[in-house]
C-alpha cells in the first residue's frame, strides 16, 4: 500500500520569507512524487514532480522540492513567499513498481497562508 | 489549449435520487481518472480508464457507483440511490498516454455534489 503524510494542517509565513511545506511518503517500490496546488473552488493545478535523477526538482511559479530517499520525504519549498501563494497544497505519490500504479495517493493537504 | 472540463459545476439532489457527472478530458488524452474529495481531505481514487475500458475500478466504494467512457473520450460517473455521505467534490483528471506511472495527471475544476 502507498500513503502520504502532510504533518502540518496549516503553515503561516510572512511575505518575502522562505516557505516549506512538508511531505513524507510510503511505497513498497520506488516512488513517483507530485505536488499540486488548489485554489478555492478550483481544481488541482500541477506544480512539479520527481521521477528520477536530480533530487532537487524545480517547478512552476518558483517552487521547488527536494527528494530525500533516506528520510522518505519530498518537501516543497520557495525562497520568497508571495501573498498569491496562499492556497491548499497537496503531495501525492505513485508506486513505480506497478502496485496500484494507476492511482495517485494524496495527503490531506496543507493550507498555506502568506501574511502581507 | 482547453483543459479538463466537468459539468455541472454544482449539483444538489435529494437522498435516493440518481445523478450523472460528466467529464471532458484534454483532447487526445488516453487515460482518464475519477477522484472524490471530501471536505478537509485529499482526493481519493475511484476509477481509471484506459481508452474505453475501466482498467482499475478498485476505488469505487460500492455498486451504487458506476462510470463509463463509451467512445474513449467523454466519461460519465453515475451514482444511484444517492446518500448524504456521497456529498463531496468529484474530480476528473486525464493524462496523455496509457496511464504510465510517471505521467502527470491534469485535473478539472470538479463537480460539487450535495445530497440533501
What topology does this entry show?
The complex is a heterodimer of chains A (about 120) and B (about 120).
Chain A (H helix, E strand, L loop, with lengths): L2 E3 L4 E5 L4 E3 L2 E3 L4 E8 L5 E7 L5 E3 L5 E5 L4 E6 L8 E9 L9 E2 L3 E6 L1
Parallel strand pairs in A: 2-12
Antiparallel strand pairs in A: 1-4, 3-9, 5-6, 5-10, 7-8, 8-9, 10-11, 10-12
Chain B lengths: L4 E3 L2 E4 L5 E6 L6 E7 L6 E7 L2 E4 L8 E4 L6 E5 L8 E8 L10 E2 L3 E5 L1
Parallel strand pairs in B: 2-11
Antiparallel strand pairs in B: 1-3, 3-8, 4-5, 4-9, 5-6, 7-8, 9-10, 9-11
What does this structure look like?
- The complex is a heterodimer of chains A (116) and B (116).
- In chain A, 0% of the residues lie in helices and 52% in strands.
- Chain A is built from no helices and 12 strands.
- In chain A, the strands form 3 sheets. In chain A, strands 2, 5, 6, 10, 11 and 12 form a 6-stranded mixed beta sheet that branches. Chain A has a 4-stranded antiparallel beta sheet with strand order 3-9-8-7, with no helix packed on it.
- In chain A, a hairpin with a 5-residue loop joins β5 and β6.
- Chain A is globular and about 45 Å long.
- Chain B has one domain: Immunoglobulins (Immunoglobulin-like, Sandwich), CATH 2.60.40.
- In chain B, strands 2, 4, 5, 6, 9, 10 and 11 form a 7-stranded mixed beta sheet that branches.
Brief descriptors of the model:
heterodimer, A: 116 residues, mainly beta, Immunoglobulin-like, six-stranded mixed beta sheet, 0% helix, globular, B: 116 residues, seven-stranded mixed beta sheet, 11 strands
What is shown here, in short?
Chain A is mainly β and 116 residues long.
Amino acid at each position: 500500500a502507498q500513503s502520504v503524510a502532510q504533518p502540518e494542517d496549516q503553515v503561516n509565513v510572512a511575505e518575502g520569507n522562505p516557505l516549506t511545506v512538508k511531505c513524507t511518503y510510503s511505497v513498497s517500490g520506488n516512488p513517483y512524487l507530485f505536488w499540486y496546488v488548489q485554489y478555492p473552488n478550483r481544481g488541482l493545478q500541477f506544480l512539479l514532480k520527481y521521477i528520477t535523477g536530480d533530487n532537487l526538482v524545480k517547478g512552476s511559479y518558483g517552487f521547488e522540492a527536494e527528494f530525500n530517499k533516506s528520510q522518505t520525504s519530498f518537501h516543497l519549498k520557495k525562497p520568497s513567499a508571495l501573498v498569491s501563494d496562499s492556497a491548499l497544497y497537496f503531495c501525492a505519490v505513485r508506486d513505480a513498481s506497478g502496485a496500484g500504479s494507476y492511482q495517485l495517493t494524496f495527503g490531506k493537504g496543507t493550507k498555506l497562508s502568506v501574511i502581507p | 489549449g482547453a483543459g479538463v472540463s466537468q459539468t455541472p459545476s454544482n449539483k444538489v439532489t435529494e437522498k435516493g435520487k440518481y445523478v450523472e457527472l460528466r467529464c471532458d478530458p484534454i483532447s487526445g488524452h488516453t487515460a482518464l481518472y475519477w477522484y472524490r474529495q471530501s471536505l478537509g481531505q485529499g482526493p481519493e481514487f475511484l476509477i481509471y480508464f484506459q481508452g474505453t475500458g475501466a482498467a482499475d475500478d478498485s476505488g469505487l466504494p460500492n455498486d451504487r457507483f458506476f462510470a463509463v467512457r463509451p467512445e474513449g473520450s467523454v466519461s460519465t460517473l453515475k451514482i444511484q440511490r444517492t446518500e448524504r455521505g456521497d456529498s463531496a467534490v468529484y474530480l476528473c483528471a486525464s493524462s496523455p498516454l496509457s496511464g504510465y506511472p510517471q505521467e502527470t495527471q491534469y485535473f478539472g475544476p470538479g463537480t460539487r455534489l450535495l445530497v440533501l
